């Protein structure tokens, strides 16, 4: 592969097709070897990027004008809000990741990187529907298009409309525990965790006490209402959020979501303080979320 595929255009295959008599493990081994040592390796990606820039091989080159889509790779917890804005827009492809992935942030980079690599060949822009998320996006490698990421630490800033709006809320009420439709529907609200994760092992009373200790420094439950659901669903979500506040002895408040950050996530523009641009081949770094790309020029 290193010799024959040096300038691209080499097709790795046993012959003109994969024959039925070939063992499945051989097919898997061929694919994995090609992926690791071919153009998908880090060395191969650099070579491919140089090849595109130099226009050495038109087979491996796709003109950016021909790339059909902005691809958004997003946390499943954002699905209801994004879908409410998308309206079957064929120019935008959204790939949703498992909503529970953030619970094990060390598992996030390889899963998200796989999605980035899968769309690199045809996307015009690649945007993440994630923030830093407990450092779960740190270490990702930007594709040839570069990578756009909301300059936020978690998704609450997306629901509130901007990082500045989140900062204002934090300064005003630093003891807020935020809930959204997805967190409640996926049983990831505090009571959902008590009922589904803690109580089966500890019993309900002990589980509730444990959650009270976890949230003892919080003063209120704040439901962010994106109004992306039906009235009936909205009532169910509100009642569940209020039950969380009542059982855990917290104040309850409701905040109407500003959907402008979600709109920019889908439709741009991506410039400005709310987005980070990671150059092609560069790693996503923690410090990036504290100093956006315009800071680098300072």
Could you name the ranges where pLDDT drops below 50 across 5 or more consecutive residues?
51-66, 292-298
Give the total of domains.
3
For the biggest sheet, the summary is: 3 strands, parallel
Determine the N-to-C terminus distance: 44 Å
Number of helices: 12
Count of beta strands: 8
Structural class: alpha/beta
- Give, in order, the helices and strands: HHEHEHEEHHEHHHEHEHEH
Q: Report the helical percentage.
A: 40-55%
Spatial shape: globular
Read across the widest sheet, the strand sequence of neighbours is 2-1-3
- Residue-averaged pLDDT: 82
Radius of gyration: 23 Å
Strand residues, percent: 5-15%
Task: Describe this protein's structure.
α8 crosses α9. β6, α10 and β7 form a beta-alpha-beta unit. A three-stranded parallel beta sheet has the order 2-1-3, with helices on both faces. It contains twelve helices and eight strands. It folds into three domains: 61 residues, no CATH class; 130 residues; 94 residues, no CATH class. The protein has 298 residues and is α/β, with parallel strands linked by helices.
């Amino acid at each position: 592969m290193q010799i024959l595929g040096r300038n691209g255009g080499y097709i790795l295959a046993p012959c003109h097709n994969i024959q039925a008599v070939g063992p499945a493990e051989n097919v898997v081994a061929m694919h994995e070897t090609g992926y690791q040592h071919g153009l998908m390796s880090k060395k191969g990606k650099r070579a491919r990027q140089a090849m595109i820039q130099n226009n050495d091989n038109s087979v491996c080159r796709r003109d950016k004008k021909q790339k059909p889509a902005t691809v958004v790779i997003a946390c499943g917890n954002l699905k209801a809000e994004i879908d409410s804005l998308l309206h079957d827009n064929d120019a935008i492809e959204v790939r949703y990741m498992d909503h529970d992935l953030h619970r094990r942030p060390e598992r996030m980079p390889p899963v998200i990187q796989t999605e980035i690599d899968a769309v690199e060949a045809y996307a015009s822009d690649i945007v993440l529907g994630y923030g830093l998320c407990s450092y779960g996006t740190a270490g990702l490698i930007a594709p040839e298009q570069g990578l756009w990421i909301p300059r936020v630490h978690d998704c609450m800033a997306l629901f509130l409309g901007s990082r500045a709006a989140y900062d204002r809320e934090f300064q005003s009420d630093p003891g807020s525990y935020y809930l959204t439709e997805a967190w409640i529907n996926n049983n990831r609200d505090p009571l959902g965790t008590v009922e589904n994760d803690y109580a089966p092992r500890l019993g309900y009373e002990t589980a509730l006490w444990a959650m009270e200790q976890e949230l003892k420094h919080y003063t209120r439950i704040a439901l962010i209402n994106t109004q992306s659901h039906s009235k009936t669903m909205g009532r169910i979500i509100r009642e569940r959020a209020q039950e969380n506040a009542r059982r855990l002895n917290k104040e309850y408040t409701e905040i109407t979501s500003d959907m402008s950050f979600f709109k920019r996530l889908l439709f741009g523009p991506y410039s400005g303080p709310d987005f980070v641009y990671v150059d092609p081949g560069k790693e996503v770094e923690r410090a990036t979320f504290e100093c956006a790309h315009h800071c680098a020029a300072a």
